């Protein structure tokens, strides 16, 4: 019998791969990848064909920390969605594929996606 401590990361990876096996970012429609940690949120726009990161933003960034949004909460998720959406629009990216990873689409992820939708089509 597998212990719960070793089983949980395995199940998380399975959930992430189940979501990502259907998602491939291209130059015309890159992938918007969201990673949540215990304290921070990281967002990247990735072109999987070229293997390049086109834009990225995080609550680690100095811009977010200066505005006291350097933590994982709903206000910082909304601002992060606006920042990544603006960066995408600057690079003339109009559509993206939303990659939620192993997390459910609710709460912080939903707020981030809604904020990014003001700039790009998800």
Keywords:
122 residues; alpha+beta; Nucleotidyltransferase, domain 5; four-stranded mixed beta sheet; 4 helices; 4 strands; globular
Description:
This protein is an alpha+beta fold and 122 residues long. The chain has a single domain, classed as Nucleotidyltransferase, domain 5, CATH 3.30.420.100. It has four helices and four strands; from the N terminus they run αβββααβα. A four-stranded mixed β-sheet has the order 3-2-1-4, covered by helices on one side. A hairpin with a 4-residue loop joins β1 and β2. The longest helix has 17 residues, at 4-20. The protein is globular.
The count of domains is: 1
Summing up helix and strand content along with how strands pair, one would put the structural category as alpha+beta
Q: Count of helices?
A: 4
Helix-residue proportion: 40-55%
CATH class (first level) name = Alpha Beta
Indicate the mean pLDDT: 89
The overall strand count is 4
Instruction: Report the sheet-strand fraction.
Output: 15-25%
Order of helices and strands: HEEEHHEH
Characterize the main sheet: 4 strands, mixed
Taking the alpha carbons of the first and last residues, their distance comes to: 41 Å
